Amino acid sequence: MNKIFPTFFIIATLFGQTNFQKESLKSQSELLIKKSQRAKKNAEEKARNMGWPVKGKLENGEEYSLQRLAPNGKPIYYCTENINSAKTISTNQVWAGGESQLFLSGSGMIVGEWDGGATLISHDELVGLTIQVDGGENLSDHATHVAGTIKASGVNPNARGMARDVILHTNDWEYDSGEMAAQAATGLTLSNHSYGQRGGWHWNSLGDDKWVWWGDPEVDNNEDYHFGFYHEQTREWDEIAYNAPHYLIVMSAGNDRNDEAAVGTEHWVWNTTLGDWELSTESRNPDGPWDCISYHKIAKNVLTVGAVNDIVNGYENPSDVSMSSFSSFGPADDGRIKPDIVANGVGLFSSFSSGDQDYGTYSGTSMSAPSVTGSLVLVQEMYKSFNDTLPQAATLKAIAIHTANEAGSTDGPDYRFGWGLMNTAQAVDLIQRNGNGNLISEEFLMNGDSVEFIISSDGDEPLRATISWTDLPGTPTPPILNSPEIMLVNDLDLRIFHENGTEYFPWILDLINPGYAATTGDNIVDNVEKVLISEPEPGNYTIRIQHKGDIGDGQAFGLVATYGYSGPVTYHVAANGNDETGNGSEGTPFASIQKAVDESAALDTILVAPGIYTGSIEINATGIILASHFIHSGDETDIATTVLTIEDPNPILYLHDTGSAMLVKGFTFAFGGIYGDNSLTCTSGNVTIENCVFTQTEADSDCGAITFGSSYGIIKNSRIENISNCFLGALYAYNSTVELDYFSILNTSGTSQIVYLQNSQIDMNFVTLSENSVDEDYSIIRMYDGSELNVINSILWNDDETEISFRAEGEENFASIYYTDLKGHINGIETNNNGTTNFGLTNVMNIDPLFCNPDSNDFQLTGNSPCVEYSNDAGPIGAFDIGCDFVGIGDQASVPGEFQLYPAFPNPFNPRTTIRFNFGVISTPLNNLNISLQIFDITGRIVETLMNGNLDSGEHELVWDAIGFSSGVYFVKLTLDKQSKIQKLILLK
Predict the structure, then answer these.
(1) Strand, coil or helix: 47
(2) 163 with 151: CB under 8 angstroms?
(3) Considering 7, 278, 931, 951, which has the largest number of Cβ atoms within 10 A of its Cβ?
């Protein structure tokens, strides 16, 4: 079930958001820029008065800039997150000459960068495709290094970036939020942000070689509450992302883990009362090891990237991934998984701003983030090449997380490595193999609804599914340490169900014990959910996405699944095949269907050549296609000549726990009259039966031709005929739901009933039941114990005994009948004094359907049948179409001349219509024949006789004045001796 989205790609800048979203982003941009300008102006004013630094670069290379004042007056700075990759995250494999041979380079794509200053766009590695969008003036080593990590062209091969041909729009970080919203409105879909705000312990922030503690003693004196806390700034970026669903923001996780001042060390701490810094020697907790990610990085809709050490030879197993000494760990305060993913952030060599040929080495999450950003450009490029559009941000995030390599000592996510190590090669491979054991789909979940996908696993590979969605922004709480408020607004739920009923849950982590291994359960905090089935049982699986609570106007999400399915296999069976030496190919087929079943997996096809196949066939816990050559030829001869039969008391075909893909098509089931069972039995499963004939079955008192037990069945274009002595009926359903379309039961006898429902529902659409018989005081359709019968566009006619009855015992039964020819009308329904029976009839008539030749099993309709234009869409009703000319009932030879009832005019009419008819020259004198013209209502009751007597031969006309009759369907019947013609009339008032 893949969804291919409309093509609207011209150049990368035209991708992005809807017109409504663009307007929202523009408005948001204007507000944010004005807000940032005011905040920065006020902060710089106070900084000058207080002697605080406004902008600068520390000895370790960290660049910083004052942004605003916190509510308590404390200055808030942006700072870069360097401390002084391509192989690590497999990006090199998708370059030209790489193992994947995909030649991805980011050509035609655009990526944004916000950083601590201007980028040296004339650098040899960046020149030509790098644009300084906001006119930043102060060159930044950090910004230039990040730009090179994203897109350096490889003039120095050791410095090559991830996406050498991408167009880079670089900006300094001043007024970043407003600029991001504005550029997202014009089509930006990906940007990198390798900076953050100071939190916890930080060395030399004020340029005096002292530690500064950036927490708020009034909230907590020992731990900085900003770590893990959902701020107003966090909400802002979630809102930008929500308004721009194609825009993914990539953030560095920060380098705050393990920062601390020795006990008793003099350090600066903010004093709200003084409105300034003061020195303190109080002991405070070190940062980490857990819960040391802060501010924007905690946002739900961004991709937060941690830093690991380089893997020179590439990833092989989880133990290859070693954590850096500085990368910040999660969780968020509500337990959300942060970081989202990791990449190399140690010792990255890239461009510097000191000269066009200058390079340098940095470490930090500032370096791991652009490694991921540049790699995601290549993932976007691959996605566009297959889908003619770019993925939504949630889908791109889901692809990255789904294909990440396992990291850490236990399976599943954790608060150190997030969902694992970015693997670009696996991400692009997933895209190019979409549909063959892989699934990528962008969906929309309506409020109160669910979305399901059915996939099949051969059991050889793990089964994984991941969903991600761009959530509404959360509502920040007042400042508090470790706020328990869950910030997830729309809580989607991912589950996988095996066809045997086993339910699989997504990964969850323990907020209270952050170092514990992941378990599975109900995830109520993350807007990413992932289910892993390491050793799946073969068979069909249902991926179900639903939600808790109210999700308002609905929620878009991206789904990614891998299930190790390499495609269906067709096995051939022929009467001259061999189960010992055959392999099921067309050239060397199997001899028995059961052998092919045993070899098959879910969604495989078993193609059976014409022949007679004797023996019971059993299919368990799978869904396959079992078909004769009719499935390809469309020749009904293949149905008649592909015969399944049996010589012992078992079903010919026994289906148990079969999946919804189970299809049986194009066979004749011929039961030989052995005491015991029936043609087809389905228990606790699903099956669709098409183009099959069930005949010559003599079932005992426990059986029927077709039996459904606790199952769901669809029978289409099939028939049961010429079966005798069925006690439970030709069709028996208990605790089941059965749909019948273009289905018939003909010339069949049963002791008690032909169709038997026990606590079941049967929907009949275009069904014909005729010439069937049961013992006296029984019925053709019998309902019992809370059953429901829905009949539409069908014919129930000329059966022996009552057409429908309700058995008195059990729960309430219900029958609804529409647009149907029911013999006896309401008298054809017997309630057996059951006071809990309900039935309703709408547009039901009681008039001979005029089959072509029922004595010869021809139940097609004559051209003048009252059933020809009676369905709810004005077509024929019953299982058969028109099959013969305009004929009447009885021995037509008794009136050898012309006998014609012409169409009434007008019709529909109000209140009069003219009816014309003709008697040709015939040998028998007309005055010796009984001639009548009568009007019937829809129940078969005569409402008016227009003529009853003798007429001369030739053409005649009569006018029916229906002024005293109600609107509705009527029938005019012309009778001459034993011959009659019927026509439908419609009175409209």
Answers:
(1) helix
(2) yes
(3) 931
Residues 6+ apart with CB under 8 A from 721: 693, 694, 695, 744, 745, 746, 747, 748, 857
Q: Output the pLDDT for position 746.
A: 92
Q: Cα angle at 772 between 766 and 778, to 5 degrees?
A: 110
* Distance, CA of 975 to CA of 932 (rounded, Å): 5
Nearest to 794 by CA among 740, 832, 836, 723: 740
Q: Which residue stretches of 622-715 are H helix?
A: 630-633, 637-641
Q: In the prediction, which pLDDT does 136 show?
A: 74
Is there a cis peptide before residue 331, judged by omega within 30 degrees of 0?
yes
Q: Which residues, 6 or more positions from 980, have their beta carbon under 8 angstroms from its beta carbon?
A: 888, 889, 890, 973, 974
SS3 label, residue 102: coil
Low-confidence ranges of the chain (pLDDT < 50): 1-15, 84, 675-676, 697, 699, 701, 833-835, 887-897, 921-927
Contact call for residues 394 and 529 (beta carbons, < 8 A)? no
Other C-beta atoms lying within 10 Å of the C-beta of residue 8: 9
pTM, two decimal places? 0.60
Q: What integer pLDDT is reported at residue 13 of this predicted model? A: 32
Distances (CA, A) of 150 to 104, 123, 169: 14, 14, 11
Joined tokens for residue 747: 């010339």
- pLDDT on residue 834: 46
Sheet holding 954-961, edge to edge: 899-901, 912-919, 954-961
110-115 and 190-193 beta bridge pairing: parallel
Residue 434 CB contacts under 8 Å (≥ 6 apart), including other chains: 2, 386, 440
Tens digits of per-residue pLDDT, 844-875?
898 999 999 888 788 999 988 999 989 888 88
How far is Cα 163 from Cα 141, in angstroms, rounded to an integer? Answer: 20
CA distances from residue 520 to 413, 511, 524, 612, 896 in whole angstroms, order as listed: 11, 14, 12, 51, 82
Residue 215 has a pLDDT of 95
Domains and CATH numbers, the chain: 12-547 (3.40.50.200), 787-887 (no CATH), 888-987 (2.60.40.1930)
Parallel, antiparallel, or unpaired: how do β-strands 653-656 and 680-683 relate?
Answer: parallel
Q: Which H/E stretch holds residue 507?
A: strand 507-508
- The amino acid at residue 709 is G
SS3 402: helix
Using the Cα atoms of residue 312, residue 314, residue 320 and residue 322 in order, give the sign of their dihedral.
positive
Mean pLDDT of the chain: 86
Q: Which residue has the tokens 């009676």?
A: 870
Q: Which pLDDT belongs to residue 888?
A: 36
Q: How far is 861 from 936, CA to CA, in rounded Å?
A: 20
Residues in the chain: 989
Residue showing tokens 């490889």: 154
What is the rounded CA–CA span in Å between residue 35 and residue 126? Answer: 33
Please tell me the predicted confidence (pLDDT) of residue 78.
Answer: 86
CB 733 within 8 A of CB 756: yes
What is d(CA 346, CA 294) in angstroms, rounded to the nearest whole number?
21
Order of strands, sheet of 528-533, starting from the edge strand that comes earlier in the sequence: 438-445, 555-562, 463-468, 528-533
Q: What is the pLDDT of residues 357-375, one digit of tens each?
A: 998 888 888 889 999 999 9
Per DSSP (E only), the strands in 230-331 are 248-252, 267-271, 276-280, 302-308
